[in-house]
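Moderator note: this is an archived Q&A kept for reference. The question asked for a predicted structure of one protein chain; the sequence and the answer are reproduced below.
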Amino acid sequence: MSPGFPSPLRWAPWLLLAWAPPSLALEWQPAAGPTGQPGTPLAPQWSEAESPFSPDPSAPAPPLWELPPTNAAPPGPSSLQWAAVAPGQEILPPTAAEVLPPAPASLAEVQALLTTQMPGWDDYLPLLRLGQLPTTALVHEALGQLSFQQVSPGNGGAAGGSGNQNYGFRADYGLTPALMASAYYTYADDPLFTPIPSRPSQPANLWTVYGGSLRARLAGSDKWQLAAEGALELFTVGSGCGGTVSCDDAGTPNIFNDSGQSVFTRNWVGALSLPLSWQANRNLQLSFVPAVSFLPDSQGADQGGGGEFYGTNISLGVGASYRVGNQVQLFGSAMLPLGPGNNAFDGDLVYSRVPVLSVGANIAVNPRIGLEASITNGFGLSPATAILALPSAPSEPMLSARFSWNPGALDSPSPRYTPRQASLALGGLSVNTALTPADGTTQVWLNGDSRGNLFAGAGYSVSNDFQFQLAAGVFNGIEPRNSFVNTYAGNGDLNLRFGGKAMVFRPSKKLPLWAAGRISVGRNEDESSKQGYLFFETMNTWEASPTLAFHLNPKLALNGDGTSWGVGLAANLQLGRRFQLIPEINLVATDLGGENGSNGSLALRWLASASTTLDVYVSNAAGIYDLGQLLGNDQVRVGARLAFSF
């Protein structure tokens, strides 16, 4: 029984009144003979009648999870009638089997019961890593975790765009209670962050890693744990190629030799570590991790001459995590390379050893969904490359964001939307709403306008509080144009975006608001650009009445050229059963698009059915998705969006 499970004894005083079966329903009536006289005991009589607090006697007893709240008012004296009991007569109370509803009889009923339970302390998974540092924690047997991570400097450096991004995807699976298997992939393809004066042009840089690892718990108790982790990886290194520079091109400089040609190699690498953790108290856990990373010490020997690379590194790691309640964990870690190899190089291509530091916080929306943010100088996202700092700028602080999904974990209780709230969960156009569709809901939408924008997207709710989102499309007709617009929203350039939306607060008596956050990453895929940006927004929705809702939507687009941000304001007015009027405005405070700034939209939404909606709108926004919301347009667009939900 998980924490928070509603014990049937909580409702015992009212079970006889509220859910007695027909054969035991209470009717308070006088018994034969004198009543109310001194010394005459009184007791209720049972008959085939309905209690004042019970439902229709012909209806089946409700399941346990629909029992009344503990603050249900007792019956008043005026509603009770008493009957005399003969001297010596014994009145036995009904048995539990007669008054309690039956236990769940099927998997479906058990799952329905679980959807009403609030997760407790033990339902949340410990952190598998503290930044780059592995811990002793394992995914539970037969369960898994999927995670996506991105690390990038706050500015673009020599790369421009959103900087030297490294993307990582990982899948962890519990094979047994003491053994976890992992598979992962990482990808980085930007020019080096710091200019390289010794080269005629800035070398491009390509790192990709395919790998797998095993983590086993070796020994331990409630206070301490010892584990071992081993990893084997294929590490592809390209210098002088990557991104917009093909590795087949000739005449591009690399960092390993003076051949003037790109260097492209594939290397088998690995890592071993022995994480040791100590549970200092219920909230604080400390970690100590000796490790070794096996990396090549040179590259390009048969491609113009071998040049220095990292080599094998022994390291010592220390870390700590502090749990603030059920859902928040603060963490920090340090990995200290001891040699004999190195883990960093600077703009002069001088190799050295620097500590890899991380500090951050992990926020669990619920046991199924985790969001993590940290500051680090570590660039590698695999066990073998975790010791490596940002190439050419080892002391540059970077922002790391990680999303994790535990498919088999307990979810938040169902929001039980009204039809009106379910329509608000469809979102707005250029101003988003805070409600997320319920677990298992799929959304698909298509959008086009009179200036040539064409976009399509899909969303899938993996939790009652989280939705994955994917979108692709092209911008067209943004005027006036400048270098910023051409870089990120060029005419006819394909834009790909991936992200998610998390609902973090539901209305309460003290604060009647829905609140959520959303983040997406992606880039302009045109060969002339290949530049990306991170888009982040918070959404707040207030239902002022059953037919009127207001939305507050701060948002920003972060990239190597700066940050564009603004605040969206919108309303949703129900017009009868089938239509909604949606006015929106985005007030853009920092505008990288030159004259392209604040914008507004007016939409009419037709609720054609429970699964189909059509929005028709006029707008002077450059588009209704991500960056387009922060760019104005000198001509009005007329557009439509068709959405399906199932």
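Archived answer notes: Residues 107-114 form the longest helix (8 residues).
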